[in-house]
C-alpha cells in the first residue's frame, strides 16, 4: 500500500514482484485488489468544478497505418478509451471511463456528482454546450486560450498529465476491462497525496476504504 500511494506514476506488477519477492501474477492480483479499494465512492463536488475528457491509448504516431484513427487529435473511441473527470477547484477529483461521450451521459454524470448551484468550468467542446441547470464559464482552447477570467481547465488537465505519464512510463497499457481501477488508483493518490498528509494517515484512509470490497481472482478475471 505504501508503494502504490507514494509512487506518483504508479508501480508496475513486475517491479512490485521484485520488491516483495513474489511472482508477477501475484503482484498483479495484489495491485488490482488495492485499486479496488481506491474506489472510495463519489464525492459531491461544490463551487467551481472543472470538467474535461481525455482519451487513453497508444500514441497515434506509433501505430501501424491500418490502426490509426482519422481523427488527428486521437479522440476516437474506436482505438482509445474515453475518461471524463471532474475536479473541484483546489479540491477533490473524480473520474471514470465512458464507452462514448455525449451530452446525455455527461449530464447524468454531472447531476450525480456536482451540487446544484455550482459553476461548471469547461472548454469549448460541443458536448458541454447542451448541459443544463448549471452556470457555465468557458475557455476556448481552439484560439490558444487557457484562462478566461475564472474559466480554466488547467486543474483537471494536470490530472490527465499524471495519468498519461503513468500510462506511457510505467504501465504502457490499460486494458479497457480494468481501466476504471487504474483511474481510481490515480485519483485516490491525487486526492490523498497532499504532502501535509502523513503517509500513515494515507494508508489508514486506504485501509478504511477496503472494507467490504473483497475481490477474488475469479471475479477479477470474469467480472
Task: Please explain how this structure is put together.
The chain has 8 helices and 5 strands. By secondary structure, the protein is of the alpha/beta class. The chain has 2 domains: 1-38 and 192-223, no CATH class; 41-58 and 71-180, Nucleotidyltransferase, domain 5, CATH 3.30.420. The protein has a 5-stranded mixed β-sheet with strand order 3-2-1-4-5, with helices on both faces. A hairpin with a 4-residue loop joins strand 2 and strand 3. The longest helix is centred in the last third of the chain and has 18 residues, at 154-171.
How are helices and strands ordered from N to C?
Answer: HHHEEEHEEHHHH
Number of helices: 8
| CATH topology type of the largest domain | Nucleotidyltransferase, domain 5
Mean pLDDT reading: 89
CATH H-level superfamily title of the largest domain: Ribonuclease H-like superfamily/Ribonuclease H
Shape: globular
Portion in helices: 25-40%
* Structural classification: alpha/beta
State the oligomer: single chain
Strand order, sheet with most strands? 3-2-1-4-5
As residue ranges, the low-confidence spans are: none
Whole-number tally of structural domains: 2
Strand content: 5-15%
Tell me about the largest β-sheet.
5 strands, mixed
CATH architecture of the largest domain: 2-Layer Sandwich
Radius of gyration: 18 Å
- CATH class membership of the largest domain: Alpha Beta
Number of strands: 5
Determine the N-to-C terminus distance: 23 Å
Amino acid at each position: 500500500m505504501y508503494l502504490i500511494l507514494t509512487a506518483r506514476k504508479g508501480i508496475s506488477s513486475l517491479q512490485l514482484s521484485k520488491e516483495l519477492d513474489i511472482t508477477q501474477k501475484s503482484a498483479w492480483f495484489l495491485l488490482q485488489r488495492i485499486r479496488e479499494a481506491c474506489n472510495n465512492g463519489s464525492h459531491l463536488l461544490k463551487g467551481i468544478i472543472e470538467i474535461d475528457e481525455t482519451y487513453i491509448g497508444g500514441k497515434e504516431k506509433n501505430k501501424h497505418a491500418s490502426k490509426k484513427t482519422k481523427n488527428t487529435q486521437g479522440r476516437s473511441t474506436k482505438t482509445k478509451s474515453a475518461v471524463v473527470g471532474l475536479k473541484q477547484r483546489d479540491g477533490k477529483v473524480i473520474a471514470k471511463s465512458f464507452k462514448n461521450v455525449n451530452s446525455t451521459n455527461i449530464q447524468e454524470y454531472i447531476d450525480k456528482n456536482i451540487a446544484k448551484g455550482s459553476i461548471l468550468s469547461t472548454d469549448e467542446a460541443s458536448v458541454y454546450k447542451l448541459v443544463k441547470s448549471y452556470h457555465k464559464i468557458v475557455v476556448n482552447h481552439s484560439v490558444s486560450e487557457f484562462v478566461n477570467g475564472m474559466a480554466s481547465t488547467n486543474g483537471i488537465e494536470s490530472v490527465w498529465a499524471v495519468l498519461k505519464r503513468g500510462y506511457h512510463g510505467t504501465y504502457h497499457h490499460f486494458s479497457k476491462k480494468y481501466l476504471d481501477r487504474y483511474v481510481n488508483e490515480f485519483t485516490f493518490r491525487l486526492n490523498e497525496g497532499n504532502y501535509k498528509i502523513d503517509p500513515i494517515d494515507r494508508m489508514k484512509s486506504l485501509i478504511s476504504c477496503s472494507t467490504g470490497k473483497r475481490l477474488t481472482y475469479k471475479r477479477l478475471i470474469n467480472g
